[in-house]
Design goal:
The protein is mainly alpha-helical and 283 residues long. Helices cover 65% and strands 0% of the residues. It folds into two domains: 192 residues, Orthogonal Bundle (Hypothetical protein af1432), CATH 1.10.3210; 79 residues, no CATH class. It has 15 helices and no strands.
Length: 283
């Protein structure tokens, strides 16, 4: 019975991939705000005025500005203060993040449950990527955060494709669909959105533990290290290889390559509370 159901889900996703007009497009407000953010003559007041038109976006930016990443003597109390603290480039990336989540609103309680599972994993992975990027000197670190979120856009798109399905897949079937379709579907969506090709390359290599991506540590390496930690933290019965065997790990300089007793980076273990706090700010 499950095999028959899986075939039905596959047929639905195949049809969506052939008819790309059914795939989600970025909201007009996102395009307008990002265009304004790219304007060298824009002002914080102008951006705050545009962002305030979207209450959920405003809440997310305020929450993120108050996260452990931005510990300041005085917590930002207004949107313009938050934008000033974050910086316009980071605000631009966070707007994209917010749009990704808002594009995939699930009406079905069962689909929403699967979405929440996927979003929990993705936000923890993104927060870990951002943390590692900051510690390892990648600038700007928020680029790693948004690249990480976009690396699994296909897993959310699969749920969107099944919105009209008569039966919601089980968690096991959903994960199986993700393994088969998330990368190809993610690349299609990123191209539709006309985003930089580097994001598509990250999608293609995300989760490929064994492939080296050059001699220098890259954003893809950071995202794969973050994915490794996310799986280890959320899935106690995981079957992950030893972290020392990963090409991405082997590029880490001391002391960032120290490993704790649980097989994870000491750097992540020691700062897990802050990482989780950042992940929650993205919900």
């Amino acid at each position: 019975m499950e095999q028959v159901s899986y075939s039905v889900y596959r047929a639905t996703i195949d049809q969506i991939m052939l008819g790309q007009e059914k795939l989600p497009s970025l909201p007009d407000i996102t395009l307008k705000i990002r265009q304004e953010a790219a304007n060298p003559n824009t002002t914080i007041d102008r951006l705050a005025e545009m962002i305030a038109a979207d209450p959920s976006l405003t809440v997310m930016l305020m929450r993120y500005a108050c996260s452990p990443l931005y510990r300041t003597q005085q917590t930002p109390k207004s949107l313009d203060t938050a934008i000033g603290l974050l910086g316009i480039p980071s605000v631009d990336r966070l707007i994209m993040l917010h749009s990704v989540k808002s594009l995939f609103i699930m009406q079905s309680p069962k689909l929403k449950k699967l979405f929440n599972i996927a979003w929990q994993r993705q936000t923890l992975k993104a927060a870990t990527s951002r943390f590692l990027a900051q510690k390892l000197g990648f600038n700007p670190p928020d680029e790693a955060l948004i690249a990480c979120l976009l690396s699994e856009i296909g897993t959310l798109a699969i749920l969107s494709a099944l919105t009209d399905a008569k039966e919601v897949p089980s968690q096991q079937v959903y994960f199986r669909l993700c393994r088969e379709y998330s990368k190809s579907l993610g690349v299609i969506i990123l191209k539709k959105w006309s985003l930089d090709n580097r994001y598509a390359e990250i999608v293609r290599h995300c989760g490929d533990w064994t492939q080296a991506t050059g001699q220098q540590l890259s954003v893809t390496d950071i995202i794969n290290l973050a994915l490794y930690h996310t799986i280890a933290l959320l899935k106690k019965d995981h079957n992950l290889p030893d972290i020392e065997s990963l090409p991405a790990y082997q590029k880490l300089p001391p002391p960032f390559n120290q490993v704790g007793k649980n097989g994870l980076l000491h750097l992540v273990n020691a700062n897990l509370k802050d990482i989780v706090g950042v992940a929650r700010s993205l919900h």
